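Postdoc handover notes: sequence design on the structure in folder B. Input C-alpha cells:
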C-alpha cells in the first residue's frame, strides 16, 4: 500500500469514524459467528459454542482499540475528548472559570497594549531602503553640554563634500505652511527639503516626481510634494493633480508629486510635527552658518556611526576657524530607530517590564486557583488513577483545561487591548504619536497578535503545568487518605501554594514601588513654581503668511489691530503677543549675545539666552512679576531707544551684585551688526524649557523693535476671574479674521493645557504604572485570600475540635491571620530587595525623587500589610463562627 493510499484511508476513518466503527463491529461479529457455527458443527451446544468462540477470539474490546490505533489520528481523538470533558468541567464551575478568564484577560490584555507600543516605536520595520545605513544628522557642543542641535548649511555642505563618509547627505527644515485659495485658510506642518532627501531615503513618489537640483535654488520656481493623506483630503485622490498649482505661504507652488501612504516622518526628530507636504527652495550656501536645519545621511558601506562622527569632527574643526559661531560644535549621528524613539525608550521598557510582572502575578494566581480546584477533585483523580488512567493522560487533560482558559482569556484580552491601545494613545504625548503612527490601532497588527498567541502558550505552561503535576500525583493511597479526612492537599501542595503567594507579593511590591515613585515625581513637578500664571489664559497661533507680511511694519500693524479688538471683547482682561509660549521650550529661539562689559568673549564661551519677542502687556497677561524696572509700552518703537528686559537668571549671572538697569547687551555672536539694547526691566524667572528643567537666561525684546524674521506667532488672552478662556475662543478667532480673513488661527488651547504637555510622558507612565500596580495589588490580595480561605475550609474539623476544647475565637483569629501573613512577610522582604535594585532603572523618568525613596517604600509596605490583613481576616471570620457540633457532624 502506497503512502498516499494510507493517508487517504486514515482521512476516511477520521471523517467517517462511525461508519468505520460499524464496519469493524460487523467484521468482528462475522468472525465470531463463523467460529460459533464451526463449534456447533463439532457437536457443541449453542451456548457452549458461543463461550468457546469468545474465548478463542479474545477480548473484542481490546481488539477494537488496537484496530482503531492502526487507523491513526488517535491523538486528535484524544484531544477532542479532552476538550469536551474540559468544557464540561469548566462549565460546572462558572465562578472559578469567570475569575480565571478575567484574571488572564487583564494580564494578557495589558501585555498586548504595551507590546503594541514597544513594537510600533522600537521594532516595526521602517519604510526606507537599507535603513541600517541611514542616520539622522545633528550636532552637539560638549563644552556647553548641548546635544541634539540643528546644523548649518556650511556644515551640511562641508560634511557632504569632504568628510568621505556619506553616499549623500540631505537637509530639511520644519516649517508651517498656510494653504490658501480654496475655502478657509489652513495651516499644515510641512518641511522645506533639499532635492536629495527622497533619494537618500530610497522612497520613490507614489505619483509624479521628487524635487530636482535646480529647484533647490532660492529663485527657482516653487514646487510642492504632497503627503498621501493631504492628497486624498484636498484633492479627492485625483491622479491628475500633478502639474496643478497650490498657494502656500502666499506663494504659488506647482505640485510635483505625491508620496506613498507608507512614507513616514520617522526620519526626523520625534519632537517635530508630521509633515503634510514638502516644499522646494532650501537654498543652502557654504557661507551660511545659521543653525536652522536637520540632516539625513546615507553612510557608505562599511562605515560605522563612530567612524563617521570622527571623520566629520575633523571637518568641523577645520570650518570652525572660518565661522566663530560654529566653535565647539561637533557632529552627532543617530540611527533612525534610536532617533525616533526620543526619550520614550526608557518609559516603554519600564512599562513592558511592569506588564510582564503583572502577567507573572496573574499566572501565580491562576496556579493557586488550579491547585485549590485540583485539591477538591482529588477523589476524582485518585479514582481515575485506580481505574488505569496514566499520569500522562491526566496531565494532558488538565493542561487542555488550562489551555482552554488561556485561549478564552487571550481572546478577551486582545479585545480589551483594542480599547487599551486607544486609551494609551489618548494619554501619550504628541511626539510619541508622531514617532508611532498607528499606535491607537496597535493591537490589530499581525505581529502583535502573534505575540498575544505566544503569551497564551507561555501562560498555559506557567500556570498549568505545576498544578497538573501536583494534582496527578501518583501516590494514590495518600491522596485517598487526605480526601477521606477532608484535607484534600498534601504538604508539598501547601508549600507550593505559599511559595506562589510569596512570588505574587514580591512582584506586587516592585510594581507598587515603581508606581509610587512616579506619583511622587509628578507631585514634585506639579508643585514646582513655573513663573507664570496658567489659569484663565487662552493661546492660539497665527502664522502670518504672504508677501505683505515680509514687511516688519505690516506685522506690527496686524498684531496691534488684533490685540486692540480682542481687549475690547467682554470678559477679556488683557491681551498680548509673543513668539513661542512659556513652558514650551521647543518653540523658543536660542540666541547668542554679548554684554558691554565683555563684548569679545573667548571662542566657545559666548553667552546664550532664550530670545523672546513680546508685545505690550505680555508680562501682565501671563502675570510674570517684574522685579525691577518697567514693562514694554507703545513708546518702544523703531525710532526710540532699543530696549530689552532680562530675567533674574541672566542678571544674576552676568551682572552679579550690580544694578542691571541701564546695562547693555547685543544679540548675536561677537562682532554682530545688531544694535546694543538697554536693559529697562528685570523679570522673574520662568521655566521656559519645562517644569523639569532649570531656569535659563532669557532676553525679552518688544514687538516693534524685533527683527522681522522672528515675528510673533502666538496670541495670549487673559480672561476675567470666573470667565472660562474657552468661552471667548470663537470671538477671538473672529477678531483675527476681521483683521485678515486669509490668516488661520491654529492650536487654540488654554495655557493650562500648554503647561501640562511637557508632563504628558510622566503622566502616561504614572497612569499606566498605577493601573498595573493596582491590578497587581488586587491579584496578590486575591492570592492571599484564596490560600487562607481554602486552608480554613479544609480545617473545619480542626477548628471545631479547638472550639470544643475551649479555644477562644480571638485565638483562632490570631492563628489564621498569623499563618496567612507569613508568606506575605517573606514576599515583602523579597520584593523590597528587588525593588531597591529595579527602581534604579527608572532614574531617567524621575524628578526630585530618589529611586530608593524611603517614604515611598514605607507607604507601599503599609498598603500591602493592610490589604493582606483584610484578605486574611475575611476567611478567619468564618472560622470564628464555626459551631463545634456542626463542624464535627459535617466531618
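Designed sequence:
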Amino acid at each position: 500500500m502506497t503512502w498516499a493510499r494510507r493517508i487517504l484511508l486514515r482521512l476516511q476513518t477520521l471523517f467517517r469514524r462511525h461508519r468505520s466503527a460499524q464496519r469493524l463491529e460487523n467484521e468482528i461479529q462475522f468472525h465470531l459467528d463463523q467460529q460459533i457455527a464451526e463449534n456447533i458443527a463439532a457437536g457443541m451446544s449453542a451456548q457452549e459454542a458461543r463461550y468457546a468462540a469468545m474465548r478463542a477470539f479474545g477480548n473484542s474490546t481490546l481488539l477494537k482499540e488496537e484496530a482503531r490505533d492502526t487507523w491513526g489520528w488517535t491523538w486528535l481523538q484524544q484531544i477532542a475528548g479532552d476538550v469536551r470533558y474540559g468544557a464540561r468541567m469548566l462549565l460546572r464551575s462558572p465562578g472559578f472559570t469567570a475569575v480565571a478568564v478575567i484574571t488572564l484577560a487583564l494580564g494578557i490584555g495589558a501585555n498586548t497594549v504595551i507590546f503594541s507600543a514597544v513594537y510600533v516605536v522600537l521594532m516595526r520595520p521602517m519604510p526606507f531602503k537599507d535603513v541600517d545605513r541611514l542616520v539622522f544628522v545633528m550636532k552637539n557642543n560638549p563644552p556647553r553640554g548641548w546635544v541634539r542641535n540643528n546644523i548649518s548649511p556650511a556644515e551640511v555642505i562641508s560634511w557632504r563634500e569632504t568628510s568621505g563618509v556619506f553616499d549623500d547627505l540631505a537637509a530639511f527644515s520644519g516649517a508651517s505652511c498656510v494653504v490658501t485659495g480654496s475655502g478657509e485658510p489652513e495651516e499644515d506642518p510641512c518641511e522645506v527639503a533639499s532635492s536629495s532627501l527622497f533619494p537618500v531615503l530610497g522612497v520613490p513618489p507614489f505619483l509624479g516626481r521628487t524635487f530636482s537640483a535646480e529647484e533647490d535654488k532660492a529663485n527657482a520656481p516653487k514646487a510642492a510634494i504632497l503627503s498621501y493623506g493631504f492628497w486624498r483630503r484636498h484633492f479627492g485622490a485625483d491622479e491628475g493633480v500633478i502639474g496643478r498649482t497650490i498657494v502656500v505661504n502666499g506663494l504659488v507652488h506647482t505640485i510635483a508629486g505625491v508620496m506613498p501612504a507608507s512614507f513616514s516622518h520617522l526620519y526626523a526628530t520625534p519632537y517635530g510635527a508630521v509633515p503634510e507636504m514638502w516644499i522646494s527652495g532650501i537654498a543652502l550656501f557654504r557661507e551660511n552658518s545659521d543653525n536652522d536645519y536637520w540632516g539625513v545621511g546615507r553612510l557608505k558601506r562599511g562605515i560605522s556611526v563612530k567612524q563617521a562622527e570622527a571623520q566629520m569632527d575633523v571637518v568641523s574643526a577645520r570650518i570652525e576657524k572660518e565661522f566663530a559661531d560654529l566653535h565647539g560644535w561637533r557632529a552627532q549621528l543617530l540611527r533612525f530607530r534610536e532617533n525616533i524613539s526620543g526619550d520614550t525608550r526608557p518609559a516603554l521598557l519600564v512599562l513592558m517590564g511592569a506588564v510582564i510582572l503583572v502577567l507573572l502575578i496573574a499566572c501565580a494566581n491562576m496556579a493557586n486557583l488550579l491547585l485549590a480546584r485540583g485539591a477538591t477533585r482529588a477523589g476524582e483523580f485518585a479514582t481515575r488513577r485506580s481505574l488505569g488512567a496514566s499520569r500522562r493522560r491526566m496531565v494532558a487533560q488538565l493542561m487542555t483545561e488550562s489551555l482552554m482558559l488561556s485561549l478564552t482569556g487571550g481572546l478577551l484580552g486582545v479585545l480589551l487591548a483594542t480599547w487599551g491601545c486607544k486609551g494609551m494613545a489618548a494619554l501619550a504625548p504628541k511626539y510619541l504619536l508622531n514617532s508611532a503612527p498607528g499606535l491607537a490601532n496597535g493591537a490589530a497588527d499581525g505581529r502583535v497578535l502573534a505575540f498575544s498567541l505566544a503569551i497564551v502558550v507561555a501562560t498555559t505552561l506557567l500556570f498549568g503545568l505545576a498544578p497538573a503535576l501536583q494534582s496527578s500525583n501518583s501516590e494514590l493511597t495518600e491522596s485517598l487518605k487526605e480526601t477521606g479526612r477532608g484535607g484534600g492537599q498534601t504538604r508539598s501542595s501547601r508549600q507550593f501554594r505559599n511559595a506562589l503567594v510569596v512570588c505574587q507579593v514580591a512582584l506586587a511590591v516592585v510594581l507598587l514601588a515603581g508606581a509610587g515613585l512616579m506619583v511622587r515625581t509628578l507631585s514634585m513637578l506639579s508643585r514646582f513654581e513655573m513663573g507664570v500664571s496658567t489659569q484663565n489664559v487662552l493661546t492660539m497661533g497665527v502664522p502670518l503668511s504672504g508677501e505683505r507680511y515680509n514687511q516688519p511694519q505690516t506685522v506690527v500693524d496686524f498684531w496691534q489691530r488684533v490685540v486692540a479688538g480682542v481687549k475690547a471683547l467682554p470678559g477679556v482682561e488683557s491681551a498680548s503677543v509673543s513668539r513661542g509660549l512659556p513652558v514650551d521650550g521647543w518653540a523658543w529661539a536660542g540666541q547668542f549675545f554679548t554684554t558691554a562689559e565683555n563684548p569679545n568673549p573667548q571662542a566657545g564661551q559666548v553667552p546664550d539666552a532664550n530670545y523672546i519677542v513680546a508685545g505690550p502687556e505680555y508680562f501682565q497677561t501671563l502675570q510674570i512679576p517684574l522685579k525691577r524696572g518697567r514693562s514694554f509700552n507703545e513708546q518702544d518703537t523703531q525710532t526710540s531707544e532699543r530696549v530689552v528686559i532680562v530675567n533674574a537668571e541672566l542678571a544674576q549671572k552676568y551682572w552679579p551684585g550690580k544694578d542691571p538697569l541701564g546695562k547693555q547687551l547685543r544679540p548675536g555672536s561677537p562682532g554682530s551688526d545688531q544694535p546694543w539694547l538697554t536693559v529697562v526691566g528685570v523679570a522673574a524667572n520662568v521655566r521656559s524649557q519645562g517644569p523639569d528643567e532649570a531656569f535659563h537666561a532669557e532676553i525679552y525684546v518688544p514687538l516693534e523693535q524685533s527683527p522681522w524674521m522672528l515675528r510673533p506667532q502666538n496670541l495670549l488672552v487673559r480672561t476675567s476671574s470666573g470667565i472660562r478662556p474657552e468661552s471667548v475662543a470663537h470671538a477671538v478667532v473672529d477678531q483675527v479674521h476681521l483683521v485678515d480673513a486669509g490668516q488661520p488661527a491654529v492650536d487654540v488651547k488654554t495655557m493650562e493645557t500648554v503647561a501640562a504637555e511637557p508632563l504628558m510622558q510622566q503622566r502616561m507612565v504614572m497612569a499606566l504604572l498605577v493601573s498595573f500596580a493596582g491590578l497587581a495589588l488586587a491579584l496578590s490580595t486575591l492570592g492571599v485570600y484564596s490560600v487562607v480561605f481554602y486552608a480554613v475550609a479544609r480545617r473545619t474539623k480542626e477548628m471545631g475540635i479547638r472550639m470544643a476544647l475551649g479555644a477562644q475565637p480571638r485565638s483562632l483569629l490570631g492563628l489564621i491571620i498569623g499563618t496567612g501573613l507569613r508568606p506575605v512577610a517573606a514576599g515583602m522582604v523579597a520584593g523590597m530587595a528587588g525593588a531597591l535594585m529595579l527602581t534604579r532603572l527608572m532614574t531617567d523618568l524621575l524628578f526630585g525623587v530618589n529611586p530608593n525613596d524611603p517614604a515611598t517604600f514605607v507607604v507601599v509596605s503599609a498598603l500591602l500589610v493592610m490589604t493582606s490583613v483584610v484578605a486574611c481576616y475575611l476567611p478567619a471570620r468564618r472560622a470564628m463562627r464555626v459551631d463545634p457540633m456542626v463542624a464535627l457532624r459535617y466531618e
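Context for whoever picks this up: Residues 391-427 form the longest helix (37 residues). Don't rerun without checking with the PI first.
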